[in-house]
Amino acid sequence: MTKQYQKLDVSNQMLDNLIAASQQGLIEKQHKLQDLERRMQQSSALEHLQNKANRLTQELAWAYVIDKEKVREDQHAIVGNC
Question: Full-prediction pTM beyond 0.85?
Fold first, then answer.
């Protein structure tokens, strides 16, 4: 019976080692997941800022066009009054 207990003890130790290794792997994967989630949020924030910059650039361009048209209209009005 002693050999059976020794075999069981060795088996238990092997299982404990396997569990410990699996837990360590799980912890590493959880850290990796957290890192990837953080990077995804940063990427999403960056995409949002890029979209906002594009929209503001378009608004600025249209404001420039409107301003130039107003200057031209004012010039035509002045020339027309002469």
Answer: no
